[in-house]
Each structure stands twice: as C-alpha cells, then as structure tokens.
Amino acid sequence: MVTDYGLFIGGKWRKSEGKRFETRNPATGEILASFPAATKEDVSAAVKAARGVFDTWRRTPAPRRGDLLLEAARLFRAKKEELARVVTMEMGKILAEGRGDVQEVIDFYEYAAGEGRRMFGETVPSELPNKMCLTMRLPVGPVGLITPWNFPMAIPAWKSGAALIAGCTFVLKPSSLTPLCAARFVEVLDEAGFPPGVVNMLTGSGSIVGDGLVAHPDVRAISFTGGVDTGRHVYEGAAKKMIKVGLELGGKNPILALDDANLDLLMDGVMFGAFGTAGQRCTATSRLIVHQKIYDQVVDELIERTEKLMIGNPLDEKIDMGPVASPEQEEKVLDYIAIGKKEGDKLLTGGEKRKGGTYDKGFFIEPTVFGLDRKKRLAQEEIFGPVLSVLKAKDYEDAVAIANSVKYGLSSSIYTNDLRWAFRAMHDLEAGITYVNAPTIGAEVQLPFGGTKETGPTDTREAGPTALEEFTYWKTVYVDYSGRLQKAQIDTERLAQG
Ligand code: NDP
User: Fold this and answer.
1) What is the pLDDT of residue 375?
2) Which H or E run contains 427?
3) Contact indicator for 309, 275 with CB cutoff of 8 Å
4) What are the residues whose beta carbons fall under 8 Å from the beta carbon of 226, sequence distance 6 or more?
C-alpha cells in the first residue's frame, strides 16, 4: 500500500494545499509513496515553527541536546536494515551501500552528540589587569537544509546533526527524488523526542521550497548540497540576504596511477570508486589518469573487470551495480555517452542502456569506459553516472596538470609506492580531499569533508570538528573585574607608569 505523507511542521504531519507527487523505485518503476509539493504558505508555517522554538532549543544545554542525538542514533541502529532497504528501493544503490548510508547517519549523530560536550571556545589573556577574554560559539538561528538524492539519509544527517548540536532548529528540503528517505529519517528524529518545531521537513520543488527557504528573513543560514548551477543560484540568494551558506557541489575526481603502483590494489580501488553507487557520488572516480608505461596493461585489466560487473535489482545481494536514480539521470548519462561517441572518444566498453526483461522497468546503464584526451567534454564535466574516462599521462607532473585542469576540486587520489610522489601529491592536487593508495570515495565522519574551486566556493567543511562552522558564529566576550574603567590600547602607557 502506498503511504500518503504530509509535511512535518511543528512536530506534526500536516496536510498541504499543494499538488501531490509520487516517488518510484528506479529499478522496478513501483510507486513507493506520495508527498505534497509544499506551497509558499507551508514554507512560512515551517519557518515559523522553527523560529518559535529556537530560543528554547538554543538555551537547552548542549550536552542535553547531545542526549537526544544519541537517542536518535540508537533508534537508527535498531532500524538500520529496514531503513537501508528504503534507501535502496528509492534511490537505487545496492543494499550494502544502503546500509552504508544509514551507518553514516548513526556514526555522525554519535559524533555530533559528543560535540555537545566539547564545542570548545578559547580563553585569551587580556592586555589589561583584572580582565579576561573568551570566545564561544553561538547558533545562528533557524536554518534551511537542502539536500540531493544520492545519499538520501546520510546527507540530511550530516547537516541536521551539526545544526542540532549547535543549537539551531531547521527546515529540511530533501530532493524530490528521495522524499521517502527523508520522511523516514524525520520520523526517527520525532521518535527520539526532539521538541516540536526543532525538526521540520518540507517536500516540494526547488523553486518554491528551496528558493522560499533561502529568501525567508527568519532563515539565518543555508546548508546546500547539489549541483554547481543550483549551488550558484543558492549562493546568490544567500548573498542578497547576507547569510551564511555552506555549499557542497559537484566533482570530477581523479585517480592518478603512477608506474610503480600496486596494480591489483589500483584496480580494486578504481572499480569501487568509479562504479560504486553507479558512479552517482560527488566523490566518484570519474577520471583515471595513468602513467604511459602502464596504460595498456591498466586498460586491458579495466575492460575485463568492468565487463564482469553484474547489473540488476539492487535489493539482490549478488548484484554489483543498480540502476541510475531517475529517467532524467538516465537521459543525462546517455547524452554524455553519445557526446563521447560523437567527439571520437574511444569507447573501451559499455556505452548502452540495458534492455530486455526486467531491465525495461528501470534505468540500467552499462558500466562504461572511454579512453580520451584531457580537453574533451567527458574529461571535464561531471557526468554523475557509471562512466569512467581514462587519460594517459607522460609522468607525475603531467598527471597532476591533467588532474587540476577541471573547474571542480572535491576528491582526488594517487596510487604509488613512492613516498616522494605521495607527499608531493598532497600538496599539488587541487582538491579538498586526497587519498593515497585508496579510491576517491570513503569519507569518515570525524574528518572535515568538502572541496575547493567550484565544488566548495564558500570553503565550509561538513563533518568533523569543522561541521559547526556552518551553523554558528563566534562571540568574543571581555570580562573586566577591575572595578574601574580600563581602556585597551590607550591604557598601556599608564600601566607602564604604574
Ligand atoms: P540539484 O542541484 O539538482 O538539487 C539539489 C537540491 O537542490 C534538491 O533538493 C533540489 O530540489 C534543490 N533545488 C533545486 N532547485 C533549487 C532552487 N532554485 N533553490 C534551492 N534549491 C533547489 O542536485 P541533485 O539532487 O541532482 O544532486 C546531484 C548533484 O549533487 C551532483 O552535482 C553532485 O556532485 C552533487 N553532490 C555533491 C556532494 C558534495 O558533498 N560535494 C555530495 C552529493 C552530491 P528538487 O529535487 O526538488 O529539484
């Protein structure tokens, strides 16, 4: 039976006047649930709820806020398998990855709960006697969280966990492709016992809900993950209002394979990085830059391994790769494959939509490998699908030049057994993340996550201790206990005279 969801506002599921839309399983076409497309009035109601409880929430001691995050983590752990299946059915990633999505929720909520007992500020000496100075973090206010579909529980968790522990209330606007994951996520937070209004969720379009949150005067920060063009638009809106904005945008992530690399390790990493989640990760390996000496060997091995991948319904544990997430995704990826073929890029394997039998019900694209030149569109633009470009490099310097020749700067990787190249790459690669002898995917929640260049123009970092930056501002406090007026900067001479 298809569940008809409402909007989660002020601790209750509410009806909306907005039109309803459905979410479907991209492997089978089955309808999973229906949701309202929130209206402008719904946006106002949700922000009002978040604003109404903000003072109570920010005054709740951070360790007590942490208790609720821990309780949520406990519930997510208890429901992990059930929620993982929801992720797989709605987004199309294989079940092992669906479990990973929920595990990230658990890990980050536990991590963020601990932050409630840290959230360190500093004490700083004053230049004047009997005076002390300190800094502390304060929550910015109610915030808007706008999320994509590829990590439909993990990304809402990264954003909301940090917002909640910081003392912010929030309105979540999930991708219209994965509202069910968001609804199930919010149900767990509700069960954990967050006060009404602290957690709110609106499904609906980017133009009404997304723009509505960015423009609303009571929304004091926006945390956005998605494509560069949407991110640019959000950035402009936030700039008009002069509010904080965190942007985690696209990627075109390279693996550099040097001629001394362990080839088995390299191939394991490339297969996982390029075709995990059907290439639909912002950190997916979309370029393999290979030293000319090992190029032919790597390409042969890559073709052999790619052709062995099993594609099918991601709920089947034997399957290596599921469908792409939607008809629009399928069209976009097939368009890129057509561009590659038209531009004369060498199609090494794949390149077709899988057809026949149950494949016809979903959006299955063969894992695809092209051999091409660094200037080609497939080597420059984010495809966000199971398409890997292989490029030949003369040496280390050339490989780095190719790696840095794109507008993105999220993740990167180098395979080498030579420490000199590994350490140089840490400094040379223009990316927020560099892996050594591991693929471009595999972030851990206790470390900062984000990019540079057009991937991360606001230079914010999710996860890790930096996660609080998006949702807090620094307060500097001067406490003068001298009992007289002391003047900083101008009182120094008097002090020297005694
Ligand atoms: P989109 O940019 O299309 O959408 C992201 C979110 O923005 C969705 O919730 C979408 O809503 C919303 N949105 C759309 N229009 C507006 C608007 N005018 N104002 C505000 N919000 C709006 O990205 P996708 O969902 O397709 O996700 C894929 C992209 O996300 C890829 O580029 C990928 O690289 C990037 N990404 C980046 C990550 C990172 O950490 N750097 C991690 C994961 C993904 P709706 O669905 O209703 O259109």
Assistant:
1) 86
2) helix 419-428
3) yes
4) 146, 147, 148, 175, 249
- pTM of the shown model: 0.97
Task: State residue 33's pLDDT score.
Answer: 98
Give the position, in ligand 1's atom list, of the atom nearest the Cα of 148.
Answer: 25
pLDDT of 492: 62
Number of Cβ atoms within 10 Å of the Cβ of 429: 22
**Ligand 1, residues at Cβ distance < 6 Å:** 146-150, 173, 175-177, 205-207, 210-211, 225-227, 230, 233-234, 248-251, 282, 382, 384, 410, 451, 455
- Find the Cα–Cα–Cα–Cα dihedral 76, 55, 218, 189, rounded to 10°: 10
- Residue 1, pLDDT score: 72
Report residue 75 as tokens.
């519930």
The yes-or-no answer on residue 248 being catalytic is yes
Tokens of 101: 């999505």
Q: Got the DSSP string for 71-112? A: HHHHHHHHTHHHHHHHHHHHH---HHHHHHHHHHHHHHHHHH
The sheet carrying 244-248 orders its strands as 12-14, 7-9, 199-201, 170-173, 143-146, 221-225, 244-248
Residues in the chain, pLDDT under 50 = 498
What ligand 1 atom has the least distance to the C-alpha of 462?
Answer: 40
Nearest CA to ligand 1 atom 31: 227
Distance of CA 227 to the CA centre of its chain: 11
Distance CA(314)–CA(151), nearest Å, equals 15
Token pair of 378, please? Answer: 């497939």
